[in-house]
């Protein structure tokens, strides 16, 4: 036990090396000086993107080191991270969540389903892709996108 503890203390925290900062396609929202408060909204996904989001905010990819942090309320958020197609049941709750997020805000569509309906394109319960329901500022493609892609997408907003 003593040897393992010493090894842990000598090794420290091991993470993948960060790539260079991506070009910011948009100006971060006003007041986002050092961090971006992100509210995740599942509009009707298969939970594949949610697994990858938890990996992106976990200790290996650690999205928080680039200034992105998950929050529990849209009223505390600067950005919405929306996953999945928008189902008919989630149409109004998504619009209400966007309306509850203070301006200026960024809406991020995460995953192919959120961007273009993915494999659920012709499903009977689908109201549309996220961009067909609310204005989308950033898209993170993939089915599901890797944690690295999610972190890169968030970095385009934070500029870090």
TrEMBL record:
InterPro entries on file: Complex_I_20kDa-like (IPR052375), NADH_UbQ_OxRdtase-like_20kDa (IPR006137)
Keywords per UniProt: 4Fe-4S, Iron, Iron-sulfur, Metal-binding
A Pfam short name: Oxidored_q6
NADH:ubiquinone oxidoreductase-like 20kDa subunit domain ranges (all copies): 46-155
Domain of life (superkingdom): Bacteria
Family: Belongs to the complex I 20 kDa subunit family.
Protein name: Oxidoreductase
Organism the protein comes from: Candidatus Mycolicibacterium alkanivorans
Lineage, uppermost ranks: Bacteria, Bacillati, Actinomycetota, Actinomycetes, Mycobacteriales
């Amino acid at each position: 036990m003593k040897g393992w503890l010493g090894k842990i203390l000598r090794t420290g925290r091991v993470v993948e090396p960060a790539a260079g900062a991506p070009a910011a396609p948009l100006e971060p929202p006003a007041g986002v000086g050092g961090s971006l408060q992100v509210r995740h909204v599942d509009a009707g996904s298969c939970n594949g993107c949610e697994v990858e989001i938890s990996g992106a905010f976990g200790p290996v990819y650690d999205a928080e080191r680039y200034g992105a942090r998950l929050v529990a309320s849209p009223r505390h958020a600067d950005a919405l991270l929306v996953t999945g197609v928008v189902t008919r049941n989630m149409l109004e709750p998504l619009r209400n969540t966007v309306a509850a997020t203070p301006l200026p805000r960024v809406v991020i569509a995460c995953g192919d389903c959120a961007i273009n309906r993915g494999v659920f394109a012709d499903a009977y319960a689908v109201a549309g892709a996220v961009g067909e329901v609310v204005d989308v500022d950033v898209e993170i493609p993939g089915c599901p996108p890797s944690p690295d892609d999610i972190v890169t997408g968030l970095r385009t907003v934070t500029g870090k």
